[in-house]
Amino acid sequence: MRISIIGLPGSGKTTLAKMLRDRFSIPHIHIDQFWFEAGGTKGSRNTHPEKLEEIRAYIREKVGPLLLEESWVSDGFYPQIQKDIAERADIILFLDIPLWRRLLNHIQRMCKPSARHKQLTVWDDITFIPEIIRRTIVNKSKYDGFIGEYRDKIVTLRSRKQIKDYLNKLS
Fold first, then answer.
1. CATH code at position 156
2. Cα(166)–Cα(161) distance, rounded to whole angstroms?
3. For 22-72, how does the pLDDT look when each residue is reduced to its tens digit (9 = 90+)?
4. What do you get for the CA distance between the two ends of the chain, in Å?
5. Residue 9: is its pLDDT beyond 90?
6. For position 74, what pLDDT does the model report?
């Protein structure tokens, strides 16, 4: 079982990936974690271009061998490696969660220290709120194109209930 989870910020990608990891005892390819390990901070817009290329190379280096495993779950949408992940995935879960719910998810995560990215401060999380809105506007066409290209593997989930129902079917 090889599952890729994609969606805009705050959609619950990592939460779902952890659930699948725990339920099926499969490796979790947490792409954001590789971003931080490589020295990435708040986002690509805040990163010097030379450093950005180093970070992207590190992510490709870490993700590549993991994709060769028989089972895994990945979460995140990084255009530089997303096609490699999609080609190897059996299924791609697209969490198409409404903006209001994603903003609420992010605010709830800010209030729960165990759910936050350890590399980010609360202030980083607060200043990420407008970035969630910006990415929703800017990245919609990237997702639409990607989904069109891999429509035979895509399962779109639009609510917590649909996610829960899908998880129950996988048992």
1. 3.40.50.300
2. 8
3. 999 999 999 999 988 988 876 656 677 788 889 989 999 999 999 999 999
4. 13
5. yes
6. 98
- What are the structure tokens assigned to 66, written together? 């993991």
Cα–chain-centroid distance for residue 74? 7
Across 105-138, b (16+ Cβ under 10 Å) vs e yields: bbeebbeeeeebeeeeeeebbeebeebbeebbee
Q: Residue 44 has what pLDDT?
A: 58
Length of the chain: 171
CB atoms within 10 A of CB 13: 26
Q: Structurally, how many domains does the chain consist of?
A: 1
Q: Answer yes or no: is 26 within a domain.
A: yes
**Which pLDDT belongs to residue 45?**
61
Find the domain containing 92 and state its range.
2-164
| 50 assigned to some structural domain | yes
Q: Where are the alpha helices (DSSP H) in the chain?
A: 13-24, 31-37, 49-67, 79-88, 99-110, 122-149, 160-170
> What is the C-alpha to C-alpha distance for residues 145 and 45, in angstroms, rounded to an integer?
22
- For tokens 């194109």, the residue is 145
Residue 170 maps to a domain: no
Q: Are 85 and 67 in contact (CB under 8 A)?
A: yes
Distance (Å, whole) CA 98 – CA 53 = 32
Do the domain assignments include residue 169? no
